[in-house]
Amino acid sequence: MSTIADNIGVVSQRIRAAAEAVQRDPDSVHLLAVSKTKPAQAVREAYAAGLRDFGENYLQEALSKQVELTDLPLSWHFIGPIQSNKTRAIAEHFAWVHSVDRLKIAQRLSEQRPAELPPLNICIQVNVSGEASKSGCTPADLPALANAISALPRLTLRGLMAIPEPTDDRAAQDAAFATVRDLQASLNLPLDTLSMGMSHDLESAIAQGATWVRIGTALFGARDYGQP
191: which residues sit within 8 A by CB, 6+ positions away? Predict the structure, then answer.
């Protein structure tokens, strides 16, 4: 039975191979361990194997883990849909938010980010496949939203995040991720981050410029949604 450390080694090699295949520096691609539904002990194991960045979708679960893991120097990323009544806790307890998709949420995060903390790193989530079930702003709304967010204090707009419609078709994967890359390039803002790619499509995402790949299943195994 493979351990989390073994899985990290396998995923790290996939990232390296994918980057080298398109003449990218493998160190330009960062691994975000998606620890939602997994216990704090799994995060400890991943930390012991070298990981420092962890992504969570569910606020209360994340805050509970943070309390259990206060002894570790971890960087927490919020990657799930954001309700207005959750912004204060997110602003206070996370280093990154990958899933901002409307100005109201960004404004609240800006207002509620504690002054003693560094600016909150923000990615705008774009609904690149137009799926009704997915969060994210439309590509048409992106330029105005990006310009507005980039002007807010206490935030640093870093780039875009996307979760394209799942497919095993490599050409379709490439096309979706290339669209995100091209949208970011069209904004004419000083952005350095593309948060895209998961366990099943990280190779395509890296080929199209991903700087964060968000990996859960390939590191921790299938998620148990029966857990609190």
Answer: 157, 158, 159, 160, 184
Nearest to 66 by CA among 40, 45, 99: 40
Q: Is 0.90 surpassed by the pTM of this model?
A: yes
Using 50, 70 and 90 to split pLDDT, how confident is the model at 228? very low
pLDDT at res. 225? 57
Neighbour-count burial of 225, counting CB atoms closer than 10 A to its CB (0-12 exposed, 13-18 middle, 19+ buried): exposed
Q: Which domains occur in the chain, in start order?
A: 4-220 (3.20.20.10)
CA proximity to 29, closest of 223, 196, 178: 196
- The beta strands (E) that lie in 136-211 are given as 155-162, 193-195
**Between helices 103-112 and 142-150, what is the axis angle to 10°?**
10
Instruction: Please report, as a single letter, which amino acid is at residue 193.
Output: T
DSSP 8-state class, residue 188: -
CB 130 within 8 A of CB 96: no
- Which residues contact residue 119 at a Cβ distance below 8 angstroms, ignoring those fewer than 6 apart? 113, 153, 154, 155, 156
